[in-house]
Amino acid sequence: MKVFSVHRGDGPIVLGQPHGGTHVPDDIAARLNDVGRGLADTDWHINRLYDGLLDDVTVVQSHVHRYVIDANRDPAGGSLYHGQNTTTLVPLTDFDGQPIWKVGQEPSDDEVEDRRQTFHAPYHAALRDELDRVQSKYGVAILFDCHSIRSLIPFLFDGELPVFNTGTNGGQTCDPAIEQAVHDTASRADGFTSVLNGRFRGGWTTRHYGRPTEGVHAIQMEIAQRAYMDESPPWGWRADRAAQLRPHLKTMLTRLNDLALSGALTAQGAQK
């Protein structure tokens, strides 16, 4: 089983997809309880959702499920959202706050470190390599981190989540023009709700790689899953809904591609 895969393109944008994988090694799967084995917190169909939207885009995709280790969490174990419910580097609960491991089968600190080295580190080494490669060609690189989540999760947030949740950690992880292009497209998308730096302000990946003054820009898009799929097992793809959503994602990526190629996003010209 491959930990990750890379589809290498020639353009300035890299799509990160850390949560679409469903692989759980057999020895780890045997320790998950019934809740954990449901894998409910997967970013279902995320690769399919973005497939073919932009020519020459690079995609770095993890194949390992986030219950094994979460590739969008701080490898040192720090919390992304202080004072709010969230899950950890190796989650102990699902997004509803329910335990996912059999009693007494929770991973030890040594196991967490082993999984970090085996699964987390290789994915991020590949992501770093692709960003470096893209930046060496264009002078800049844009990481667009692709996520999705159920619309209603009281443990994590109140009410129904907007469809488009754009995260830049308060504008720190990318040039303002990138933030504006994505959020403007989202806010103008007829029939879809949106928010900028709401409950999801960008995970560890976005915050770690987003260094606009160094020419590397990162932005996270968290999509409410009702916009393209069924939000209950068997988590089916809804082609009718996806057909309404995908053109807006295509517009976002096209605008970012044009920005990168325009020369307006040089490290020296970055405003943050």
Brief characterization of the structure:
The protein is an alpha/beta fold and 272 residues long. The protein has a single domain, classed as Aminopeptidase, CATH 3.40.630. Helix content is 31%, strand content 14%.
Quick one: how many beta strands?
7
| Strand residues, percent | 5-15%
User: What class would the helix/strand composition place it in?
Assistant: alpha/beta
Largest sheet: 7 strands, mixed
Helix content: 25-40%
CATH architecture: 3-Layer(aba) Sandwich
C-alpha end-to-end distance: 40 Å
Instruction: Tell me the overall shape.
Output: globular
CATH topology: Aminopeptidase
- Could you name the CATH class? Alpha Beta
Calculate the mean pLDDT score and round it.
94
Widest beta sheet: strand line-up = 1-3-2-4-7-5-6
CATH superfamily: Zn-dependent exopeptidases
Number of domains: 1
Helix and strand sequence: EEHHHEHEEHEHEH
Topology:
Elements: E1 4-7, E2 13-17, H1 26-29, H2 34-37, H3 46-50, E3 58-62, H4 109-138, E4 141-149, E5 164-167, H5 176-187, E6 194-196, H6 204-209, E7 216-224, H7 239-262
Parallel strand pairs: 2-3, 2-4, 4-7, 5-6
Antiparallel strand pairs: 1-3, 5-7
Describe what this molecule looks like in 3D.
With 272 residues, the protein is α/β, with parallel strands linked by helices. It has a single domain, classed as Aminopeptidase. Helix content is 31%, strand content 14%. It contains 7 helices and 7 strands. It has helices at 26-29, 34-37, 46-50, 109-138, 176-187, 204-209, 239-262; strands spanning 4-7, 13-17, 58-62, 141-149, 164-167, 194-196, 216-224. The protein has a 7-stranded mixed sheet with strand order 1-3-2-4-7-5-6, with helices on both faces. β5 (164-167), α5 and β6 (194-196) form a beta-alpha-beta unit. α5 (176-187) packs antiparallel against α7 (239-262). The chain starts with a strand and ends in a 10-residue tail after the last helix. Mean pLDDT is 94; it is low at 268-272.
